[in-house]
């Protein structure tokens, strides 16, 4: 068993240093001192992020727009999954919210996680 020397992440500077070191160790083989260090750093970074880093949930409309951009889709391509072109326009212009059936259809058709399409609460 190897000994890994790391420090608890208490500050933003510690966090940035841990991220820097983890990037250096990304390709370290498992069951080596470097691989063990990467595993420990991952646990420490995750614990720090869970406590200190708040990531806002994505906006469902922005998620749809990103998917459209990545998949080179037009609004008309979404019409069959959202109840027509008018509904697509209303949702993308924030005049109407996504319905449960729209969320399920978009999720299945475009491989978007359902959670990403749920409205923020």
From TrEMBL:
<dbReference type="InterPro" id="IPR010982">
    <property type="entry name" value="Lambda_DNA-bd_dom_sf"/>
</dbReference>
<dbReference type="InterPro" id="IPR001387">
    <property type="entry name" value="Cro/C1-type_HTH"/>
</dbReference>
<dbReference type="InterPro" id="IPR039060">
    <property type="entry name" value="Antitox_HigA"/>
</dbReference>
<protein>
    <submittedName>
        <fullName>Helix-turn-helix motif</fullName>
    </submittedName>
</protein>
<dbReference type="Pfam" id="PF01381">
    <property type="entry name" value="HTH_3"/>
</dbReference>
<dbReference type="GO" id="GO:0001046">
    <property type="term" value="F:core promoter sequence-specific DNA binding"/>
</dbReference>
<feature type="domain" description="HTH cro/C1-type">
    <location>
        <begin position="64"/>
        <end position="117"/>
    </location>
</feature>
<dbReference type="GO" id="GO:0006355">
    <property type="term" value="P:regulation of DNA-templated transcription"/>
</dbReference>
